[in-house]
Each structure stands twice: as structure tokens, then as C-alpha cells.
Amino acid sequence: MESYLMFEPTQGTRTPGHYAEYKPCPALRAYVSCYWSSRTDGTGLWNESAVTVVPDGCTDLIFEWEAAGGGDVSIRYCGAFELPFSPEPKREGASETFAVRFFPGGAYPFIGVPLGEFKNALFRGTDVWGKAAGELGEHLRLAAGTAERIVRVETALLRLLAAADNGRAEAPPALHEAMMRIFAARGTISVQQLARAGNISARQLQRLFDGRIGLGPKTFCGIVRFQNILRDAERQPKLSWQEVAGAYGYCDQAHFIRDFKRFYGELPSSLIMS
Fold first, then answer.
1. What gap in Å lies between CA 206 and CA 226, rounded to an integer?
2. How wide is the angle at C-alpha 106 spanned by C-alphas 175 and 265, nearest 5°?
3. Can you give the three-state secondary structure of 186-246, one letter per residue?
4. Percentage helix, strand, coil for the chain under 3-state DSSP, each rounded to 5
5. Which CATH number is correct for 173-270, 1.10.10.60, 3.40.640.10, 3.40.50.2000, 1.10.3080.10?
6. pLDDT tens digits, 179-194
7. Is the pTM of this model over 0.85?
8. Which 8-state DSSP code applies to residue 117?
9. pLDDT digits (tens, 9 = 90+) for 11-45
10. I need a surface site. Which of 53, 196, 233, 264 has the fewest CB within 10 A?
């Protein structure tokens, strides 16, 4: 089974107004988790600064522009975060956003720079992708709608992927196998177990994850476990937190609550699923 079929990142209910996700074409599914769009209406009923982004192991390339069509396109690359954070609003008034959410490690073939260099930070998209990011941003702003934006961004990504050498486009086998084991265990696996199963040292594993995922293997396992807990809460809202804690290998409720708060920023009781 492909790794992207084993892990579905989610933000739970913490998504901005008018938010929607779109799946990538088959050729990009190993790299792109989804495209997403959102829009603000300028009434102040929704404020980007009030939205908290929770860790999901992914990285995002985000394009934002004024809904009226004027001004420049703001382009940001969001590295993998270890803790929840609230992005600063880039614009006042009505705005539109279109973004690429890369699967864990999925951005590496398109950048070719160790993803650990982008950890826990936001960067200007043009600093990461150069002039091409600005040109793509203008195409997205002028596009007739979401369907055209998806075509535009996929054309650009497929072109970059075709230009990447095989060593960059394909994850090292040891990393791929480790990720498959993490997803299969829903994050409940130790670095020592991963190293033994892959016949690799913990130090080598750390280097692989730092470079290609942007997070260490221990942190990544914790995020995958947290993400699976969020998914379970979405799909089975009547589950008790005690049941969830037991299912994910927590010895006591206090440890579970501490881990959940670390990644969500609040207690489990604050999670309300619609």
C-alpha cells in the first residue's frame, strides 16, 4: 500500500471560513496531500489570526491575494511545525487563499533543500522557489476559478518533478520503510523499534528524517499518533477519551492529556466535532 493511503492529515475543526480541500492528480498523490482554498469576506466575522494550525507533518505553499483583484500576491512557504501556531494575518479586508499542502516529505523533490532548514517557520515563497513562485502566484490570482488554479499549480509541479533527478524524486528506501511502519502503527512505535526493523542506526534515521521530512523521527511519530487521534474523534465523536488513550498506548490519562495539549494547544475536552 502507498504511504499516502495510510495517513490523512487533518486540522480537525480548526479551519478558516469558506475552507475547502481538493485532491491532487494521480501523478502527484505521493507528494501532495491536498490543495486547499479559503476566503475571507472582510466583515471581521473571521480573522486569520484567530485560527490555530496544529502539527500534521506537512508543509504548505500558500498564495494569498485581495479578493477585489488588486495588489500583489503574498506567497509563503510554511515548514513543518512541532507545536501549534497562529499565522499572522497578511491582509485586511476580503481576501482569497489557494495553497498546496505537501504530504510529509513531499516538498523535498520540488525544493531539493533539506526540509529541516524550514522547521517551525514561515518563509517567503520567492526565497524558496525563486521567480517562478511569483509568476505562478499571478496565474493563480487571475485564474477563472478553483479548477483552473488546480490545473495551473499541477502543471508547474509536474514540470518541476520531471526535472528532478531520481535520487531527489524518490525517498530513500530506509526512510520509506520507516514511514510505512509509523503509519501502520498509527504513530505508536519507538525510534529504537524503527531502527531495528530497518537495520539502521538511530543516528542515521535522525539524519534521514531531518533532511527529508523536516522533523526528527520521535517527534514525527508523536504527530502521526496525534493526527490519528484527531481523525478518530472526527469519525467516532462518541468515543470516550479514556478509550482513545488506551487505544493509542497511553499508560495513564495524564500522559495522554499532556501529549494532546502539546500538539493541540488545549485540553481534549475543548475539541468539539460538528
1. 20
2. 95
3. CCCCCHHHHHHHHCCCHHHHHHHHHHHCCCCHHHHHHHHHHHHHHHHHHHCCCCCHHHHHH
4. 45, 15, 40
5. 1.10.10.60
6. 999 999 999 999 999 9
7. yes
8. G
9. 876 666 688 999 999 999 999 999 999 987 765 54
10. 196
